[in-house]
Design goal:
The protein is an all-alpha fold. The chain folds into 2 domains: 44 residues, Arc Repressor Mutant, subunit A (Orthogonal Bundle), CATH 1.10.10.60; 146 residues, Tetracycline Repressor, domain 2, CATH 1.10.357. The chain is built from 10 helices and no strands. The longest helix is centred in the middle third of the chain and has 28 residues. The radius of gyration is 19 Å and the shape is elongated.
Length: 199
């Protein structure tokens, strides 16, 4: 691991735990054993370091979802949706510290004034929504999912699943305990007849 990667890893842990404002470069130096000058050699400011963590997270999430879509085969779009939900929950557990970073208010606050930060956040959420939407579109093609606005429904389902992850991230509730109910609810939502009765 390079010195830059060590700084990035430690900063992720620090910002996830304390947030952007309450994290100091002195603490980061102590965690890494690296001088402050070295940190600022790699990252010009605390804000640039924060955005670099977000960029690294975007790359990791995109890679994981690319691997998932290439390796997994599903009979129907409905089966794919169940797989996507399972994988999202798995990924959130595997990358718990990084999801805590993502779920803090700091990235969204910074995104209001930092276009690069906003771009990374949008790319992360587009990646999530694209895979949920892909499952719905596939299901509409094979008949396992009724006709409805795919992107909107993808956003609704993703919001529900991500909400569970947030409860889990903040140790308020065990997301896994509701897995069966979430899958059942999504299946009912996606298979249910539409208002014209042709679904």
């Amino acid at each position: 691991m390079t010195r830059k990667e060590i700084i990035l890893q430690a900063a992720t842990a620090l910002f996830s735990d304390k947030g952007f404002k309450d994290s100091s470069m002195a603490e980061l130096c102590k965690m890494t054993g690296v001088a402050e000058g070295t940190i600022f050699y790699h990252f010009k400011s605390k804000e640039e370091l924060f955005v670099a963590i977000l960029e690294d997270l975007r790359k990791s999430i995109t890679e994981e979802f690319d691997k998932f879509t290439k390796q997994k085969r599903f009979e129907t779009g409905l089966d794919m949706m169940e797989g996507v939900i399972s994988f999202y929950l798995f990924l959130a557990g595997m990358m718990e510290e990084r999801f805590l970073f993502l779920h803090r208010h700091d990235p969204y606050q910074l995104a209001e004034v930092n276009a690069v930060c906003r771009g990374h956040l949008e790319a992360i959420y587009d990646c999530f929504l694209d895979i949920f939407e892909k499952a719905i579109l596939r299901g509409q093609e094979d008949g396992s999912i009724r006709k409805m606005p795919a992107r909107k429904i993808a956003l609704i389902i993703f919001s529900m699943v991500d909400g569970l992850v947030r409860l889990n991230t903040y140790n308020l509730y065990d997301a896994g305990a509701l897995y069966g109910e979430v899958i059942d609810l999504c299946r009912r939502m996606l298979q249910g007849k539409d208002s014209h009765g042709d679904g």
